[in-house]
Specification:
heterodimer, A: 340 residues, alpha/beta, Rossmann fold, Helicase, Ruva Protein, domain 3, 2 domains, five-stranded parallel sheet, two-stranded antiparallel sheet, 14 helices, 11 strands, B: Rossmann fold, six-stranded mixed sheet, 22 helices, ChlI/MoxR_AAA_lid (chain A), CHLI-like (chain A), ATP binding (chain A), photosynthesis (chain A)
Chain lengths: 340, 602
């Protein structure tokens, strides 16, 4: 496998890096959507994340990679297993690419053509959704994704289960994943339903100051000329970050959310008129994830403030005549609430 | 070829140089966008490029409407049937590994195809998840985008253009005999061997980044591509480190054509735009420009609209307008309908069981095969028992197995706002029209309709917003709008007709909304005078009707006059007096009268 650009070597782009780290600490924040300028390294960040994630334990032989001791209810393989006899092994957390041009059969899984043709056996061949279980599903150019695939994803992302009814196959399997999408808003907008599935949404801008740009070019050049040396050079940083994710995961259940913070979050969401409770929930979860990453024991306003733009900007009701973008509106509301 | 850049360069020589550098490092330089109609010069240039590439490098042509299975790969049906087990087939992209892909008619490449190409370029491999096959094939190639666009509206998709280092324009360029010191395939091969060892000193990297920034080249890919070009140039010259002259060539060939503004203030080091380039013996910009770190980061459109227009040479301005131009996406959402012709067109929207004969629906061979597959052993046994022929077909397909692909296609509506920006009321009218554009876009972006905007004032009409469905883009383009001056109504209508025609050729339905008070006073040729101007306006109105474009005229005059009504009649347009037109009223009116949505077929 070709080497990928190390996560910690990415210059700037703090918002997307933070959002991905939070999602790595607490997958329940929902996915991450990164929209922005071309060539800003959105895909680089996501691919780098794959290398960064700590390994996870899976049940040996389970086609969906269930967690030992906590099999997914929909998993047919693990349902009947005797817990004490389950063997486990460490694997890389899957970051599965949903390439453009993917066909439905490969996404949801279908009849195993090879076995059907050669042996005449009707067997199920799991698709990308199965592979992404407990990991990340990455859609580059999310706004160019075929509509029927979007429909499919929406359904699975909501239920955490993939139901396959094809070619006489009838199967249900767990498919719980963090959806990560990137795209360019100039190629068209995203369907609101899909937008809503993403917990955090970040805007990626081309860095405009010279020093940052020079550093980007320099590191990229160094990486392309000698990937092994470059990756080796950054390994320490990546390892450090990995340990931070692990520590944050352990800390997460203990991080407290005081009532005052809950109230702050609720007021903020009310002030912005976000639809539904999902915004509030995501805001709190993301803030908790951030607190865990930072090593803080309680979630405070400073955490809310940092994650609010990502958690809320895509949930605002659209007001096309408001010149200010949604980021500005969130920032305005933050300033009002926290008097910053 | 060390000192070659000191001599005066013709566009042809530049093109040959670009081809040479590209041949040295196709994967790093990624590609060349070549804007030219097919012709002798282009053929000669392509032949030159081919002669410089290694003899075993594949050169493949990418047809415009290639299917995913040919582009990316998939199931090789013939081989699968022959072998009785699934055999994967490589697509064109994988076949081009190590070579060059020629993208014909690049200006018509869909955003979808461009995104697929971009993904392969970015991943360094073709990742397919298709037809029951999952393969990751490492693939590196260069791209030559043959852009045959003739108008500014016809551009290769930006997702593709942004990744190609060179932008050449062959309009009016004729082929020249090869220069005496022209690089040979041998030189290129030697440079290729040297390439990896060429180092980039920090000041070169800084200079390229600085130049890009002060020319308003925002994409961070541009300096990276410039660096690759400089490296190839150094390798070709036999240097082990990138020198100033290498960086200068890279800045001239890669950065200047992308410039969106002239440097502020123009430092001497900046390379002038290519068409004015006489000499290029200026030293490359060196780190001195760092004062420019804090270059004004005003949005581009301010530059266009406020002042810079006159100051920027035509070549640069053209680039400005091209920046961010986007190919419309294929339509994809909507209701099911029954347009016969769309049975075979549009994008696939799933597969269902059905007869390929009914209504000419297209058989999906792979799905059919898939459906037939599990039954094969059974059917063979069955046939043997019923005493059928000994050697039956390898795969028995029955009627039940037939799967047909459903296609979705919808005729999109593209609403063209034609706004009278003349006189004192202009600003208000423009602001409201702009509001209406944004409202419409915000409301119909789910349906993916498009909106465009044309304004006319002074002596001419101007395309302010090419058809788009992007709210982000509309906001940016419409941020500042000039107003005032005469009323060249005829020009406005003419531009709307031309645009309508273009939209129709893309398979969309144009719908014109004219916001004016109807008091034309500038004739088509730009001369003042009411009678001539009115006559021209009426003639253009008739032309609009002849073109069969549905229209609505919103009369914004405080006291509606008969002329506007007359123009509406000539246009066969609906007439709507709205003296205090506001954004909401306009968008409401548009929604009420816009042509019925044609639906998609299944």
């Amino acid at each position: 496998m070709a080497l990928v650009f190390p996560f910690s070597a990415i210059v700037g782009q703090d918002e997307i890096k933070l959002a991905l780290l939070i999602a790595a600490v607490d997958p329940s924040v929902g996915g991450v959507l990164a929209f922005g300028d071309r060539g800003t390294g959105k895909s680089t960040a996501v691919r780098a994340l794959a290398q960064l994630l700590p390994k996870m334990k899976v049940v040996v032989g389970c086609p969906y990679g269930c967690e030992p001791g906590r099999p997914a209810p929909a998993c047919e393989h693990c349902r009947g297993l005797d817990e004490s006899k389950v063997k486990s092994r460490q694997v890389q957390v899957p970051v599965v690419d949903l390439p453009l041009g993917a066909t439905e059969d490969r996404v949801v899984g279908a009849l195993d053509l090879e076995r059907a043709l050669t042996q005449g056996v009707k067997a199920f061949e799991p698709g990308l959704l199965a592979r992404a279980h407990r990991g990340f599903l990455y859609i580059d150019e999310a706004n160019l994704l075929e509509d029927h695939l979007v429909d499919l994803l929406l359904d699975v992302a909501a239920s955490g289960e993939n139901v396959v009814e094809r070619e006489g196959i009838s199967i249900r399997h767990p498919a719980r994943f963090v959806l990560v999408g990137t795209g360019n808003p100039e190629e068209g907008e995203l369907r609101p339903q899909l937008l809503d599935r993403f917990g955090l949404s970040v805007e990626v801008r081309t860095p405009e100051d010279l020093a940052t740009r020079i550093e980007v070019v320099r590191r990229r050049d160094a990486f392309e000329r000698d990937p092994e040396a470059f990756v080796a050079k950054w390994k320490k940083e990546d390892d450090k970050l990995r340990r931070r994710i692990l520590a944050a995961r352990e800390r997460l259940p203990e991080v407290k959310v005081p009532d005052a913070t809950l109230e702050s979050a609720a007021k903020l969401c009310m002030g912005l008129g976000t639809d539904g409770l999902r915004g509030e929930l995501t805001l709190i979860r993301a803030a908790r994830g951030l607190a865990a990453l930072e090593g803080d024991a309680t979630v405070g306003d400073k955490h809310l403030k940092r994650v609010a733009p990502s958690a809320l900007r895509h949930r605002l009701r659209r007001n096309p005549l408001d010149e200010a973008g949604s980021t500005v509106r969130v920032e305005r509301a933050l300033a009002e609430h926290f008097g910053a | 070829m060390t000192d070659q850049d000191r001599t005066e360069r013709s566009p042809w020589a530049d093109a040959v140089l670009a081809a040479t550098l590209f041949a040295v490092d196709p994967a790093g330089i990624v590609g060349i966008a070549m804007r030219s109609l097919p012709g002798f010069a282009r053929e000669r240039w392509l032949a030159t490029l081919k002669s410089l590439l290694p003899s075993d490098a594949p050169v493949r042509r990418l047809p415009l409407h290639i299917s995913d299975s040919r582009l990316l790969g998939g199931l090789d049906l013939a081989a699968t049937l022959r072998a009785g087990r699934p055999i994967a087939e490589r697509g064109i992209l994988a076949e081009t590994d190590g070579g060059v892909l020629l993208v014909a008619m690049a200006e018509r490449v869909s955003a979808g195809t461009a995104a697929r190409l971009a993904a392969v370029l970015d991943n360094g491999g073709v990742v397919i998840e298709r037809d029951g096959i999952a393969i990751d094939t490492p693939t590196r190639f260069g791209i030559v985008a043959l852009d045959e666009g003739m108008t500014d509206d016809e551009q290769p998709p930006t997702a593709l253009a942004d990744r190609l280092a060179f932008r050449l324009n062959f309009e009016g360029v004729s082929a020249e005999p090869p220069a005496e010191d022209a690089a040979t395939a041998g030189d290129v091969a030697a440079a290729r061997a040297r390439l990896a060892a060429v180092t980039a000193p920090d000041d070169v990297i800084e200079a390229l980044c600085g130049t890009a920034l002060s020319l308003g080249v925002w994409s961070i890919r541009a300096p990276l591509l410039a660096l690759a070009v400089a490296r190839a140039h150094a390798a070709l010259a036999g240097r082990s480190e990138i020198a100033k002259e290498d960086a200068a060539v890279a800045a001239r060939l890669v950065l200047a054509p992308r410039a969106t503004r002239l440097p502020l203030p123009p430092p001497e080091e900046e390379p002038p735009p290519p068409d004015e380039q006489q000499q290029d013996d200026q030293p490359p910009p060196d780190g001195k420009n760092e004062e420019q770190q804090n270059v004004e980061d005003r949005p581009l459109e301010d530059m266009i609209l406020e002042a810079a227009k006159a100051a920027i040479p035509a070549g640069i301005l053209e680039q400005l307008r091209l920046a961010g131009r986007i190919k419309p996406r294929q339509p994809s959402t909507g209701r099911a309908g029954h347009l016969q012709k769309t049975k075979l067109r549009g994008r696939p929207a799933g597969v269902r069981r059905g007869e390929p004969r009914s209504g000419g629906a297209r058989l999906n061979v792979v799905e059919t095969l898939r459906a037939a597959a599990p039954w094969q052993p059974l059917r063979r046994r069955e046939r043997a028992m019923s005493g059928g022929p000994e050697r039956s077909a390898r795969v028995e397909v029955r009627k039940d197995d037939f799967r047909i692909t459903r296609f979705k296609q919808r005729t999109e509506t593209a609403t063209i706002f034609v706004v009278d920006a003349s006189g004192s009321a202009a600003l208000h009218r423009l602001a409201e029209a702009k509001g209406a554009v944004e409202l419409l876009l915000a409301e119909c972006y789910v349906r993916r309709d498009q909106v465009a905007m044309v304004s006319f004032r002074g002596k001419a009409a101007e395309l302010l917003l090419p058809p788009t469905r992007s709210l982000v883009r509309a906001k940016r383009n419409l941020a500042g709008l000039p107003g005032g001056g005469g009323t060249p109504l005829a020009c406005g209508l003419d531009l709307a007709i031309a645009l309508g025609d273009q939209i129709r050729r893309k398979g969309q339905t144009p719908f014109v909304i004219l916001l004016t008070d109807g008091s034309a006073n500038i004739a088509r040729d730009g001369s003042p005078g009411r009678p001539k101007a009115e006559e021209d306006a009426l003639a253009s109105a008739r032309a609009l009707r002849a073109a069969g474009i549905t229209a609505l005229l919103v009369d914004t005059a405080p006291h509606p006059r008969p002329l506007a009504r007359k123009i509406a009649a000539e246009m066969d347009a609906m007439y709507l007096p709205l003296p205090y037109a506001d954004a909401a009223a306009i968008s409401g009116a548009v929604k009420a009268v816009s042509p019925p949505r044609e639906s998609l077929a299944g």
